[in-house]
Amino acid sequence: MELNGRPVSTGELAGLALYGYGHFTTMLVTDLRVRGLDLHMDRLSRDCRTLFGVELDIPRVRELARRSARAHLSPSVVRVTVFDPHMDLGHPSARQLPQILVSTRPAPTDASPPPVRLGTRRFTRDTPQIKSTGLFGAIRQRRAAQLDGYDDALFMGVDGRVSEGPTWNIGFLDGGGLVWPQAPCLPGVTTALVSRAAENLGIPVTTRPIASAASTRTAGAFITNATTGVRQVAAIDGVHLPQAALVRKFAAAYAELPGDPL
């Protein structure tokens, strides 16, 4: 783990650990290439402007991520976190100087993880369009779902509409097409890439409200994030879903994307 290209001290991480004010993106790096690299960088730029009111040095971000990836076996998961180690809790509106923290871990070894069993939870993340470091609420819901016997939590709003999961987006199949939920959620990089793949396959892609009560009456569902790609949903609230061949086609199309040079 490095801050601006050098080893980070525990003191420099104190603000991030205690306040959790920052944002990040997580990338799967294979042979120094990243699927949807431009989308990851756009996310970092957009969120930095929103949280800190300044422009992020994207060439520097790429340099630091590349350096970290080179030091680890390929493939690896590289997380870029942007935060201000010197932020004043009492005066967060003061001028801030966001810094670049890069951490790396081994990529998952299971290329085809088993279908996931989801349990719906009434929850909406704070500022869901930002990939923020404040994960308390989301992880709390994941833990509660697992204690109830599920693999993970599927969030729905107070209006009963499906939105997202703690660290992923969800897609549904309906009449041969791909449907993303219309609800407050993070615009996922993998979601955008799967949409492109679907369009290249001639499959209609739409976004519309999906009631949690109707989420089990579908031709199939899957979750997406940069680390695992496309993963089938086995069941929602104990109701088993079809394991659609179309989801496997999406997964294969996504896996074949070459990625962009980091």
CATH first level of the largest domain: which class? Alpha Beta
Q: Mind telling me which CATH architecture of the largest domain this is?
A: Alpha-Beta Barrel
Examine the coordinates and then state which fold CATH places here, giving the name of the CATH topology of the largest domain.
Answer: D-amino Acid Aminotransferase, Chain A, domain 2
Helicity, in percent?
25-40%
For the record, give the distance between the C-alpha atoms at the N and C termini, rounded to a whole number: 18 Å
Compressed to H and E, one letter per element, the order equals EEHEEHHEEEHEEEHEEEEHE
| Nearest-integer average pLDDT | 94
**Poorly predicted segments:** none
Characterization of the model:
This protein is an alpha+beta fold and 262 residues long. The chain has 2 domains: 2-106, 2-Layer Sandwich (D-amino Acid Aminotransferase, Chain A, domain 1), CATH 3.30.470; 116-261, D-amino Acid Aminotransferase, Chain A, domain 2. Helix content is 28%, strand content 29%. The chain contains 6 helices and 15 strands. The strands form 2 sheets. Strands 7, 8, 9, 10, 11, 12, 13 and 14 form an 8-stranded mixed beta sheet that branches. A hairpin with a 2-residue loop joins strand 13 (229-236) and strand 14. Helix 5 (189-200) packs across helix 6. The longest helix is centred in the first third of the chain and has 16 residues, at 37-52. The two termini are 18 Å apart.
